[in-house]
Amino acid sequence: MTHVPRSSPSLAEEDLPPLKPREKLRARGPAALSMTELIALLVGSGSAGRSGFRIARALARRSPTELATWSTARWLLTPGIGPARAAALTAAFELGRRAAELPASSAAIRGPDDVLAQVRDLSRARREHFVVLLLNARHELQCRETVSIGTLNASIVHPREVFLPAILHSAASVVLVHNHPSGDPEPSEEDLSITRRLVQVGELVGIGVLDHVIVASRGLVSLRSRRLL
């Protein structure tokens, strides 16, 4: 009897996960999924000749922090990602960023460690973020506001952008926070100059600046603890 070879599948077996991410999500919950599997759920079926799981596996080699900074245009540069998937991925990471900004209910800010607990995501961010923590009269966190997102080494901050959300939320005081993507939390002369200016504006509008905390991968610096505020 003549042996007829079986036709090869269109996608290699290595392109397929041992258990489909959607099934695994239902069975075990999102915490059980790997980075590749989470991205695969967003990517979907992929494109002709390139499975969604294969695309996700390539993307998972990058850090979530890096992917969170990608614009829709940057996602479109990824092979297998079209306009619809690029929009979905951009939206998913933006939702994650906003969720990270939601403060713990009535979290009291008593010192730099309490501040770090609210901005831990900034320590390894690839771009500089300037964030304001809005506090009530009991120093409880009301809201976290991202004022600006800069480049690798600079962030432009204007006093009106800092104090407008504080005024709208009737904040009693604020804590300023920004990160140094370089990994070194030591304040620059520009950091000190911006802080002095914001303290002066805070005094004028009646909203005190309690501290300015700089976070980085190698630690943090509190300007109040250094008596630079």
From TrEMBL:
Record's protein name: DNA repair protein RadC
Which keywords does this chain's UniProt record carry?
Hydrolase, Metal-binding, Metalloprotease, Protease, Zinc
Its GO biological process annotations read: proteolysis
Family affiliation: Belongs to the UPF0758 family.
Q: Region annotation Disordered: residue ranges?
A: 1-21
Output the CDD domains linked to this UniProt entry. MPN_DUF2466
What's an example of a GO molecular-function annotation for this chain? metal ion binding
Tell me the InterPro entries matching this sequence.
MPN, RadC_JAB, UPF0758, UPF0758_CS, UPF0758_N
* Gene transcribed to yield this protein: radC
Fetch the PROSITE patterns from UniProt.
MPN (PS50249), UPF0758 (PS01302)
What region holds the MPN domain? 108-229
Q: Where is the composition biased (Polar residues)?
A: 1-10
- Give the Pfam families listed for this entry: RadC, UPF0758_N
